[in-house]
Design goal:
5-stranded antiparallel β-sheet, Aminopeptidase, Alpha-Beta Plaits, 2 domains, single chain, alpha+beta
C-alpha cells in the first residue's frame, strides 16, 4: 500500500529522540484522524493514541509501539542519510527508526485500513514516549488506561514472528577502589585495575541464574569511568557499568551474586530496586507461555495472512511489554523488520513487510480478545 509506505518514510524524516517526541506524536494523531479512527489524542505524558470503537463492551486490544529513537551515531557511516526515509530499488526503507520503531508504528496505525468491519472489542493503537529511556510513557498508559486493555500486542521488530517474552534489564554500578599514585611506582596492590581484572575473570566463569523459558541470565560489562585522565597516574577509583539481562532474579539475589564475585576485592556494587528508574534502572522481563490463548490467536492470525503460523521466540532486548504484562494484561509481540538492525547505522525495513504486519494486526483485531485464564 503506497499510503502506508509514504507514511512510514515521513515518520523517519521527523527526528524524535527521547524527550523530543512532540512533532512525531502530532503527525501520528493526524494520521489516526485521516484514517477515520473514532478517537485520536495525545495524553498527559505525550503518548499518541487512537481508538476504534468495538461492537461489544469490555476490555479491548492494545497495539503498542513507541515514538522515540536512539541517536543516529556517525551519520557519515550510513549508506543513506539517517533521516531521509530513502526507499531503494530493492524495496527497503532506510533510516534511524526504520525498524525501531517507525516502520512497525506505521503498520499499527494502518491496521484500520485493513479492518473489513467494526471490531468486536475496542482497538487501541498507542505510540508512547521514552521507551528508550526505560518506559515512562508506557508506565503512564498502563496506570491511566490499563483496565481498558484485555490483550497487548507489542509491535517491536521480530521479522514478523510471534514473540512471547524477553528478559528484564538492570543497570548495575560496581566501584573499585585504590590509591592514586605515579604510574612509574607500579604498585599493583594500590591500582584498582587489578581488582577489576580479577572481577572480570570471575564474572566470565560464574554460574548465572536460569529460567526454563527465558534461558540464562546475562551480565555484560559496558562502560568504564576513572577519576583521572592522566596517562601517567593510576586511578583512585574505577566505576564499571554492567548491563544485566535478568530472568527473574530479585535485587537481593543479584546483590548476593555480586558479593560472591567481589569477595576479597576493594569494591562495592550498587543494584537498583525493581522498577527503579533514573540514572540506573531495574525492570523485569515477561514471559507468556507458548500455549497461552493469546499466542495461539496471534499464530492463527499470522497463518491467515502469511499462509503459515511461523514460530514463537523471545526478544533479546527489552520492550514496553514489561509494563502491560506486570499489570496482568496478556502480552505478546510481532512486528516487521529485523531486530538485529535496531540501533545500527544500517537500519532498514522492507516496505512490503509493513503491509503484512498491518494485515496481521487487523486479522487479530477482528477476533475476540482471548481470555486471561
Amino acid at each position: 500500500m503506497k499510503e502506508l509506505i509514504a507514511f512510514a518514510r515521513e515518520l523517519i524524516r521527523i527526528p524524535s529522540p527521547s524527550g523530543a517526541e512532540g512533532a512525531l506524536a502530532r503527525r501520528v494523531v493526524a494520521e489516526f484522524e485521516r484514517l477515520g479512527y473514532d478517537e485520536a489524542w495525545i495524553d498527559e505524558a505525550g503518548n499518541a493514541l487512537g481508538r476504534i470503537r468495538g461492537e461489544e463492551p469490555g476490555p479491548g486490544w492494545l497495539f503498542l509501539t513507541h515514538l522515540d529513537h536512539v541517536d543516529p551515531g556517525d551519520e557519515t557511516a550510513w549508506p543513506h542519510p539517517p533521516f531521509s526515509g530513502h526507499l531503494d530499488e530493492a524495496g527497503r526503507i532506510w533510516g534511524r527508526g526504520a525498524v525501531d520503531i517507525k516502520g512497525p508504528l506505521a503498520a499499527t496505525v494502518y491496521l484500520k485500513a485493513f479492518l473489513p468491519k467494526r471490531p468486536r472489542r475496542d482497538v487501541f493503537v498507542a505510540s508512547v514516549v521514552e521507551e528508550e529511556l526505560g518506559g515512562r510513557g508506557a508506565e503512564h498508559l498502563v496506570k491511566t488506561m490499563g483496565e481498558r486493555f484485555g490483550a497487548t500486542i507489542v509491535a517491536e521488530p521480530s521479522n514478523l514472528e510471534t514473540m512471547h517474552g524477553h528478559r528484564g534489564v538492570a543497570r548495575v554500578r560496581v566501584r573499585f577502589f585504590g590509591q592514586a599514585h605515579h604510574a612509574a611506582l607500579a604498585a599493583p596492590e594500590e591500582n584498582p585495575h587489578w581488582a577489576l581484572a580479577r572481577f572480570y575473570e570471575r564474572l566470565r566463569v560464574a554460574r548465572k541464574p536460569t529460567h526454563p523459558l527465558l534461558g540464562v541470565s546475562q551480565i555484560t560489562p559496558t562502560v568504564l569511568f576513572a577519576d583521572t585522565r592522566s596517562q601517567n597516574r593510576t586511578p583512585g577509583r574505577i566505576e564499571l557499568i554492567l548491563d544485566w539481562r535478568t530472568v527473574g532474579e530479585s535485587p537481593e539475589a543479584m546483590r548476593a551474586l555480586l558479593a560472591e564475585l567481589l569477595r576479597g576485592l576493594p569494591a562495592k556494587a550498587v543494584v537498583p530496586e525493581l522498577w527503579e528508574h533514573g540514572e540506573l534502572e531495574n525492570t523485569p522481563g515477561f514471559v507468556t507461555p507458548p500455549e497461552h490463548p493469546l499466542i495461539k490467536a496471534l499464530l492463527t492470525a499470522r497463518k491467515r495472512v502469511l499462509g503459515k503460523p511461523g514460530r514463537t521466540s523471545l526478544w533479546f532486548f527489552a520492550t514496553d511489554g514489561r509494563y502491560t504484562a506486570a499489570a496482568g494484561i496478556p502480552t505478546a509481540g510481532l512486528g516487521p523488520g529485523d531486530p538485529k538492525l535496531a540501533h545500527t547505522e544500517g537500519e532498514w525495513v522492507r516496505a512490503g513487510d509493513l503491509e503484512k504486519g498491518a494485515r496481521v494486526y487487523a486479522a487479530l483485531a477482528e477476533g475476540p480478545v482471548p481470555p486471561t485464564d
